[in-house]
Design goal:
Strand content: 15-25%
Radius of gyration: 16 Å
Shape: globular
Structural class: alpha/beta
Number of domains: 1
CATH superfamily: Carbon-nitrogen hydrolase
C-alpha cells in the first residue's frame, strides 16, 4: 500500500527585513502543521527580496540564521521543511540560490544549489540576470524522506 504524504506549499510576499520574512515563514509552517501537514515547502528566496543586485547583501553561510530557523521549525513542529531557497555564500565566497531540506528531527537531509539560473533580457521591458551575482550549482539532488 502506498503511503500518502500530506504537504503544504506556501507562497509569501517578502520584504527587506530578513527577520520579518522568517517570522512570516514561521507562521506559515505553524499553520500548516496545525492542518496536519507532514511536509512544508517554502518559496524560492523566502527570506529576502528577489533582486539579483541585493543577493550579495542577503547571502549567508551554512549554518546560518535562515538554516538554523528551518531546522528549529522542522524539529518544533515534527515535520519536514523544504526551505524553498535562500541565498547561500560558500566558504570560497561564491553565492548560490540554495534549497535546504530538514527532516522532522531538524536534521539536514538535503541541499540543492540551483543549476539553471534565470537570465532574461527583453529590451525596453525587463532585464534580470541571476548569473550576474549567482554561481550555478552542478549536481542533481535526490532527497529521501521516510
Amino acid at each position: 500500500m502506498d503511503k500518502i504524504l500530506s504537504l503544504s506549499i506556501c507562497q509569501m510576499k517578502t520584504g527587506k527585513d530578513k527577520d520579518e520574512n522568517l517570522k512570516k515563514a514561521g507562521k506559515m509552517i505553524a499553520a500548516a502543521a496545525l492542518e496536519g501537514a507532514e511536509m512544508v515547502i517554502l518559496p524560492e528566496v523566502f527570506n529576502s527580496p528577489y533582486q539579483a543586485e541585493l543577493f550579495p547583501r542577503y547571502a549567508e553561510s551554512f549554518p546560518g540564521p535562515s538554516t538554523d530557523f528551518l531546522a528549529a521549525a522542522a524539529h518544533k513542529h515534527g515535520l519536514c521543511v523544504v526551505g524553498g531557497t535562500i541565498i547561500e555564500r560558500d566558504t570560497q565566497g561564491k553565492i548560490y540560490n540554495s534549497s535546504f531540506v530538514f527532516d522532522e528531527r531538524g536534521e539536514l537531509i538535503g541541499r540543492h544549489r540551483k543549476a539553471h539560473l534565470f537570465d532574461i533580457n527583453i529590451p525596453g521591458r525587463i532585464s534580470f540576470h541571476e548569473s550576474d551575482t549567482l554561481a550555478a550549482g552542478e549536481n542533481i539532488t535526490i532527497v529521501r524522506y521516510r
